[in-house]
Amino acid sequence: MNSLVLAVIGIAMMLAGYFVYSKYLARRVYKLEAQFHTPAHELTDGVDYVPTNKFVLWGHHFTSVAGAAPIVGPAVAVIWGWLPAFLWVTLGTVFFAGMHDMGALWASVRNRGQSMGMLSGRYIGARGRNLFLVVIFLLLLMVVAAFATVITNLLIATPTSVIPVWGAIAVAAVIGQMIYRWKMNLLLTTVIGVVALYSLILVGDRFPVVLPDSVLGMTPATFWIVALFLYAGVASLLPVWVLLQPRDYINGVQLFIGLGILYLSVLLASPTVVAPAINHAVPEGTPSIVPLLFVTIACGAISGFHGMVSSGTSAKQLDKETDGRFVGYFGAVGEGLLALGAIIAATAGYQTLADWEAVYSAFNEGGVSAFVEGGGAIVNAGLGIPASLSATILATMAVLFAATTMDTAVRLQRFVVQEAGEILGIRIRNVVATVVVLVCGVALTFSAGADGSGGLLIWPLFGTTNQLLASLTLAIIAVILLRKKRNPILVLIPLVFVLVMSIYALIVQIGTFYADGNWLLLALDLVILVASLWVALESGIAMQAARKGAFDPETDDPVLAGSGRRDTTGSD
């Protein structure tokens, strides 16, 4: 199979999804209104609620939701063959992820920028909300701890990426001033930022940074992890326009250019996909493709983390409700294109099938290293860029994706801690909530030693937890649609599919964890399973009530029987 054929078919499907299906969703399902007064205007505070240009917000949203997961998942899942991964990424992006992300953004915007955790209280009930927040907190903890470890490993393995990765922070700070303080033209600002970032990549390739064995009494791994948590903590506290938003925007543009370089290389080199379409000779110990494919590839097909970003930060910055189609749906398309690129790099970046099989000798092999190695070979063959520089470009891409997700996750988890405080009647200030998040993240990351390997301890549960959260987010969207007297079938089909596959995967993992004697993961698996089933049951009851009850289609509020008045007391 020629990789160019895969690229053309995949890109065409995703663009058709954006230009055709997303328009249908915007007009007939979510009914987006340009005149709607969004939370960014209603609650403007210059910190979290900031009306934002849709292109800038798309950059923040795209890079925040992407991270390393749409690289890792597809690059691992091709062990079952390229065809199942290709179909799940393309169809999932078009019919699952785009609808889910745009829907979560719309639901939050229609509810004063509240997160999915808080929305679950209104639309599902207090019990569902409390359990929902538990699942969200565990998911964000996995993201923060694991990405700190992943980024650290990449910085150590690819020292040429150190200067561009950390230099991007300074570039972003300047970009924020150029956009909001100096009111400079966005196109000119973008060009300056991209040139600065790629200049840093050239400098980094020339001057790799390898830390000594001891830095301030810490190993290189410990030092990078501490530095990353300190940065993420500061970034989560600063006004969103100062660092987080411009960093995500300029990174998004730079990363899209990086994807363009990869796809242009595929066009010019047309490398052959050496991996089998369906691998009938998977290595011993590889789990069954069903249901594991659908949780191994989470980001890149559908991801609950996207709902957290949509409702946690993006909804607070949306200038016009109609911008939600570009920010939400096209943000998912951007991630789908990254996942498609990871599939091509991990299957067509090797000379022979034997070379590919040497890398994929066991389940969970490949991942980012296969993307960087295979993608670097394709870029080198297609554009003639030296192998070292090609690897630096792709490694920097992967690290910047992971870093932007990590700092957004810390901010989101701070919101979750504060929302939990509200439920308990405790007002938790930003700094205190951030400290709680950092302490939890650092404790988990270093729980297995100074190398930060503890950050990956609970990562095996990420895919299933993430997909369960996506199905529960879809449940909230379905309840809202039912209350507004709209047909929720386009939401219910993905909801049922993802929920069934996720619960199936959790049950399979219970057996694996028990057989391995991994009691921590077994206990967490059971907690997540019980909480998710409970929320799913509460969601079913809420959907039934919404279908049968009388609700104001404009506000979603229950109408008191026989009075014509709305009941605005909420679900609590």
UniProtKB/TrEMBL annotation:
Residues 2-348, 362-505 form the CstA N-terminal domain. The keyword Membrane applies. It holds the Pfam family CstA. It is a multi-pass membrane protein. It is found in: Cell membrane. Keywords: Cell membrane, Membrane, Transmembrane, Transmembrane helix. The chain crosses the membrane at residues 6-26, 62-80, 86-109, 130-156, 162-179, 186-203, 223-244, 256-278, 290-309, 329-350, 389-410, 431-450, 456-482, 489-507, 519-537. Its main location: membrane. InterPro entries: CstA (IPR051605), CstA_N (IPR003706). Belongs to the peptide transporter carbon starvation (CstA) (TC 2.A.114) family. This is Carbon starvation protein A. The lineage of its organism: Bacteria, Bacillati, Actinomycetota, Actinomycetes, Micrococcales.
